[in-house]
Amino acid sequence: LTPAAQNLLVSLVLVQLARPDPNPSATTIAQTYNLARLLQANSTALLNTYLSAQGSPFSDPGFSAVGLRWAGVPVAPLPFLAWRTMGDAERLTRSYGAYAAFDAFLQLVWDDQAELCPGCSELLAMLGAARARTRGLLANLTSIMATMGIPAPPAADSLSLEATGVGAFERKCRGYVVCREYQGWIDRTVRDFTLLKAKYPA
């Protein structure tokens, strides 16, 4: 660039920095929506890959255990009216708490599968990617909440060392619940950010 062009570029940057942003969180909201849409497809593939790697009964056609729960794993389903009447702060706070828990649970499931199915390289890679993107989602939520003046919940480790001391079948069940509820939460986050994106257009 010529000196004149460089000076013009610097001037434009300074003007942008000096101009107040009426919706400082709008760009991050749009980015988070796009990330959630990406995770939506990936979480479906993760659940299917997880089930196929576990053997019977998990890999059996039509397998479903919707009533199976595991302590500490955030549950996504919520009646429509209860979800729709939530405020932005409650939606974001609940999402933050859920993904903070999934950050720990996805690591635990990775550890379990590295021992139970060390040859499942595709599944291990998908679990690692899901955890990395979940951390990105948490960073975006932290930024949005800070901009809106919503305090982030204190970090809490929802797992204890005893979580590693369960049998192989129980670990497979736990991994299934984690992957299933993670998929449900991603779907819920897409719906949350569809509303937020309309409210705070970039």
Automatic annotation (TrEMBL):
<keyword id="KW-0325">Glycoprotein</keyword>
<keyword id="KW-0202">Cytokine</keyword>
<protein>
    <recommendedName>
        <fullName>Cardiotrophin-2</fullName>
    </recommendedName>
</protein>
<dbReference type="GO" id="GO:0007405">
    <property type="term" value="P:neuroblast proliferation"/>
</dbReference>
<dbReference type="InterPro" id="IPR010681">
    <property type="entry name" value="PRF/CT"/>
</dbReference>
<dbReference type="GO" id="GO:0002052">
    <property type="term" value="P:positive regulation of neuroblast proliferation"/>
</dbReference>
<dbReference type="GO" id="GO:0007166">
    <property type="term" value="P:cell surface receptor signaling pathway"/>
</dbReference>
<dbReference type="InterPro" id="IPR009079">
    <property type="entry name" value="4_helix_cytokine-like_core"/>
</dbReference>
<dbReference type="GO" id="GO:0005125">
    <property type="term" value="F:cytokine activity"/>
</dbReference>
<dbReference type="GO" id="GO:0005615">
    <property type="term" value="C:extracellular space"/>
</dbReference>
<dbReference type="GO" id="GO:0005127">
    <property type="term" value="F:ciliary neurotrophic factor receptor binding"/>
</dbReference>
<dbReference type="GO" id="GO:0005146">
    <property type="term" value="F:leukemia inhibitory factor receptor binding"/>
</dbReference>
<dbReference type="Pfam" id="PF06875">
    <property type="entry name" value="PRF"/>
</dbReference>
<keyword id="KW-0217">Developmental protein</keyword>
<keyword id="KW-0964">Secreted</keyword>
<comment type="similarity">
    <text>Belongs to the IL-6 superfamily.</text>
</comment>
<keyword id="KW-0732">Signal</keyword>
<feature type="signal peptide">
    <location>
        <begin position="1"/>
        <end position="20"/>
    </location>
</feature>
